[in-house]
Amino acid sequence: MGTGGAQFGLQSEGDLQLLFVLYSVGFVAIFACVTLLYGHAYRRRDALGLSVYERHEAAMLARHYGLFVLVGLLSIALAVLGWGLTIGAPGFIYALLGPLCGVHGWWSGERAPERDLVPDEDLALGAAAKNDQGLEGEHEESSLVA
After folding, report:
1. Where are the domains of the chain?
2. CB 36 within 8 A of CB 101
């Protein structure tokens, strides 16, 4: 199959700039959704009956995925400004995720409640609240329908 003489690939620095921006916009959109979902769970922690440990996890994961959003936004800024396009700086900037997430994970771990030391009643609180709200029953019914 021929391409009808059409050329594909990057034809200019502007194409490279657009490639980095489009990739990063998608990356930011996905991880912004995940960040917002964890943030929403944390804000609704009482209504959801989250245990102390689950509350910590929801807040930690909202921050964790927020770092992804920040790095994606930094990549967009580099691409739009044209800084380091020819060496791929807007792509290489994603390498910051490893150290940033590692430091954040260590920092969050230092502040995490000990899972073994959390009272059993607190761990059971999440399941009990879900049962009281009928959430488990809805889940079972929806799985039967699907």
Report:
1. 13-145
2. no
Token pair recorded at residue 115: 């899972």
Predicted TM-score (pTM) of the model is 0.74
Q: Give the Cα separation of 70 and 18 in Å (integer).
A: 19
Q: How far is CA 106 from the centre of its chain?
A: 18
Alpha-carbon distance of 139 to 122, in angstroms, equals 22
Nearest to 53 by CA among 124, 132, 103: 124
Q: Mean pLDDT, to the nearest integer, of 128-135?
A: 58
Instruction: Look at the block and give the residue holding tokens 């991880």.
Output: 31
Whether the Cβ atoms of residue 61 and residue 71 lie closer than 8 Å to each other: no
Exposure of 105 in the CB half-sphere (CA atoms within 13 A): 7
Q: Kindly list the distances between the CA atom of residue 51 and the CA atoms of 3, 48, 102, in Å, as whole numbers in the listed order.
A: 58, 9, 25
